[in-house]
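Entry 14. Two folds queued back to back today. First construct below, sequence then structure tokens.
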Amino acid sequence: MRQPALPRLWLLSDRRNDAMLEAALARLPPGSGFIFRHAHLCPAERRARFRALCAIARRRRHLVVLAGDAALARRWGADGAYGSPRRQARGPALLRLAAVHDLAEIGAARRAHALLLSPVFATRSHPRARLLGVQRFLALAARAQVPVIALGGMDAQRARRLGGVGWAAIDALGLVG
């Protein structure tokens, strides 16, 4: 599979930012990335919500990734799949993004095309999680064999502190109060 160029900016969907996703997708720079999660919805509602948001994302030329396995992502028409490193092991040839938090998970993500490494900074999503901080993030990212996308308390200023790596956010795009 020929991997598409990875966006520098990613938006992750979440129950908290659901009501604002249409506006957020329209405001993101063209060619950004969108990771649709919405695990809180039943399967039929999740698929309907994905279709609606995917249509907006496609008009803006965003890369659309579905949280789940690659076979589901292919059936739903996503550009890729997002999940744990072990979920990335099988399925059709699609872009694979893995959620990782430490060196062991980075090692387990051998089939991933890129890693979302978190939590870099304090975040409302995981308030009691052990934070990586700048130095540990950079050390772990240096060990990865694929591009790393910073997640967890990220915004544009913090991304610059990390050397301009790609970054992903739920709250930092001004979507959640």
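Second construct, same run, same settings:
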Amino acid sequence: MSKKPGLTVLAGPTAVGKGTVSTYIRDHYPEVWLSVSATTRPPRPGEIDGVHYYFKSKEEFDALVAAGELLEWAVVHGQNTYGTLKSTVDAAIAEGRSVLLEIDLQGARQVKKAVPDAQFVFLAPPSWEELVRRLVGRGTESAEEQQRRLETGKVELAAEPEFDHTVINDDVRRAADELVSLMGLTPRPH
């Protein structure tokens, strides 16, 4: 079953591995175009404008919002704003590319309103215990932040029925291949 190229939205709870699965797809499936977000966050060392993010001033970002040029956007952690430019997604689809948009639940809900015929895939952990292990194991958040993210994770897991498909991230390669298959592409041996 081959699906026509289009937009696939990947979302799921915090620490489920959305970024890891997306990176695997970028590295192994060059025919998939991964959307690059716009952000008001300043570049980190080594980050390149237009490759990692489209870096915008607050005023530039606000103008994009006002002009309706974003598929979705949100203020993250009360600080910086992130969003997906409609123009870049539309251009990739017009070129016949399969587009993967890796975003949070709030963004996925906005895209569903804007592009209801997109495909929505929920990336789920093998178990709640595994999600907790991954979040705590990262060691990138304080205990307080971990607890806040786990509370958010419970709410995010409850949103699974809103999605067209669920992929269990029990193995990054297997999950990436399943996602690519849902996008209508043939997984290849690695």
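Quick look at the second one. The helical segments are 18-28, 58-66, 86-94, 105-114, 128-138, 143-157, 172-182. The chain has one domain: 7-182.
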